[in-house]
Structures are given as structure tokens and as C-alpha cells.
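Worked example 3 (structure in, sequence out).
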């Protein structure tokens, strides 16, 4: 990504392969509230839906099946809407790489983290640090400057994660494998965001999503067969989680996310990601009886506050 001037505060995008976009007509307050509420609930509950699905399917296998269905629907929509496809082979490749990082690598890591015992709330919390990691990379290697508020936010965010993770370590609920898997997911979604910002910011969103989904399915289906023996138990639980992940999550939440970004709501979308860990923790409590402790909730609040400080643009000047 071309670096900003050294005197400019770092710009942080959030979420899977977010691309810089031009500001469009502002949304009404009621529309913004409704879309934001939809995004937060669907995105946060998606972690718990993954935990439910992984009781009946191995991670690679489940992701492969999910994205095969999603890719078929996304392709149909792109064709019906006559969306613009990439103009060159190189552009096709860039879009596919961004999708493999921000969907395939991200979900493979987050699913295996939960498959190996990490709770949905903690997984969501660690992955919500993606804007913070992006800011640090931009400041260290891309020549962009962190403001004083943003530097403090880095420390605050990491302190919040330490509160949550330290408590779980005491209970022996976190393994090196699950931490490694969620760290891989965090690296992939961060890399996918930076890659998309540099190579794919001018592509049509409708065809980009179809390519992202198809590339992920092409990778995950063979991995599911070779590594996991394509282990999946077909029942109503799998059908329900697939329906949830394909329709309101992949087709719905991702569309809302990018729609808000294209309406000039980048900062608001970033803030919405901070609300997903508590939503995931509450849903996990309701469905699986995993009650978050007071220390965990405090850590989530502290971590989210830190990430909010990092992603505030021009905080010092204001």
C-alpha cells in the first residue's frame, strides 16, 4: 500500500479485505442504526454458529461446503446484475489472493481455534484486534505515523487481551494450538486487508465477492478431503448453521459491511467490530452455558477501548 505522508495519522480499515472507497450519499440515522445492529448481531453470533457447526463437521470441510454454496449464489447475483469482472489475468489473481487471505486463511484459523477449545468470545476478541495490528504494521513498515492517542491505545488494547487470556490460562482453557490458530487467522485477515487496499480497491464489489468465495471453496474442499477425510455429519444442525453462515452472514453481513464502507462509514464500521466480542460471549452463554466472568468482560471492554483509540483518525488534532 502506498504510504501516507509522515505527518498524517495512520488510517486504519477494518474487517475482511476492506477497501478504501469514495464517500457517497450519507445514510439516514435510522437506516444506519438498523444496518449497524444487523451487522453486530450477525457477525458476533457467527462465532457461536461456528462452534455449533464444528460439533458435526471438521473445519476445512465445513468451510469448503459453506463457500461452495455461497460462491454459487454470489456468482448468480453477479451475472444477473451484470456486474463488472476483472479486466486482466493479474487483476483476477489479486482478487483471488485477497479472498484466500481474508476468507480462507481467516476462517481456517478461527474455526480451528474453536475446534481446539478456544471460546467464541475470546476468538472474537482477538480477531477484533485486526485494526490495531494493521495500524502497527502501517506505522512500522509503511511509513505512517501513530498519534500519541493511538500509541496509548495499542498498550490499552493489549492490556485488555491480557486480562481475558490470563484468566483463561489459569483455567487451562487455552492451548498453544488454539492460540496459534487464532493468531494465524489474525495475520491472514490483516494481510488480506492490506493486500486488498493495495491491489483491489478499484474492483467491482459484486464480482470480487464471488471470486473470493470461489477461491476459498477451491482451496478448502481438497484440504477437507485430504486432511480431514471430508468429515461432516449431515443433520438439521449442520443445515441450520450452513443456512445461517451463507445467507445472513456471508451474503448479508459482508454486504452490509461493504455498503457502509462505501457510504463513508469506515470509522463507524470499525467501531462496530468492537461490539462483536461481547455479542459472541453473550450468545455463547445463552446457547452453551459458558458464562463470561467479570474479569473477562472487563478485559473485553478495555481491549475494545484500546482498539477504538487506535482507529480514531486525527484524535490528537481534535
Amino acid at each position: 500500500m502506498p504510504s501516507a505522508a509522515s505527518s498524517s495519522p495512520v488510517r486504519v480499515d477494518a474487517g475482511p479485505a476492506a477497501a478504501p472507497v469514495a464517500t457517497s450519499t450519507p445514510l439516514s440515522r435510522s437506516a444506519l442504526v438498523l444496518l449497524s445492529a444487523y451487522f453486530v448481531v450477525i457477525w458476533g453470533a457467527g462465532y457461536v454458529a461456528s462452534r455449533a457447526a464444528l460439533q458435526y463437521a471438521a473445519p476445512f470441510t465445513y468451510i469448503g461446503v459453506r463457500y461452495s454454496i455461497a460462491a454459487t449464489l454470489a456468482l448468480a447475483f453477479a451475472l444477473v446484475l451484470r456486474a463488472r469482472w476483472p479486466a486482466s489475468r493479474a487483476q483476477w489473481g489479486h482478487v483471488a489472493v485477497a479472498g484466500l487471505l481474508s476468507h480462507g486463511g481467516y476462517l481456517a484459523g478461527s474455526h480451528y481455534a474453536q475446534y481446539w477449545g478456544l471460546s467464541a468470545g475470546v476468538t472474537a476478541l482477538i480477531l477484533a484486534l485486526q485494526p490495531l495490528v494493521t495500524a502497527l504494521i502501517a506505522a512500522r513498515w509503511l511509513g505512517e505515523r501513530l498519534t500519541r492517542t493511538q500509541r496509548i491505545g495499542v498498550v490499552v488494547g493489549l492490556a485488555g487481551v491480557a486480562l481475558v487470556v490470563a484468566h483463561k490460562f489459569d483455567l487451562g482453557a487455552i492451548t498453544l494450538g488454539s492460540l496459534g490458530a487464532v493468531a494465524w487467522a489474525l495475520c491472514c485477515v490483516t494481510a488480506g486487508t492490506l493486500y486488498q487496499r493495495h491491489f483491489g480497491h478499484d474492483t467491482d464489489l459484486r464480482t470480487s465477492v464471488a471470486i473470493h468465495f470461489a477461491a476459498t471453496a477451491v482451496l478448502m474442499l481438497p484440504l477437507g478431503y485430504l486432511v480431514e477425510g471430508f468429515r461432516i455429519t449431515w443433520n438439521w444442525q449442520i443445515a441450520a448453521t450452513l443456512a445461517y453462515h451463507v445467507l445472513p452472514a456471508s451474503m448479508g453481513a459482508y454486504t452490509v459491511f461493504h455498503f457502509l464502507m462505501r457510504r463513508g462509514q469506515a470509522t463507524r464500521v470499525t467501531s462496530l467490530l468492537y461490539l462483536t466480542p461481547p455479542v459472541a460471549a453473550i450468545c455463547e452463554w445463552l446457547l452453551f452455558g459458558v458464562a463470561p466472568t467479570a474479569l473477562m468482560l472487563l478485559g473485553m471492554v478495555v481491549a475494545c477501548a484500546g482498539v477504538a483509540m487506535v482507529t480514531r483518525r486525527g484524535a490528537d488534532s481534535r
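Notes: The first helix runs from residue 29 to 53. Residues 1-23, 314-318 have pLDDT under 50 and may be disordered.
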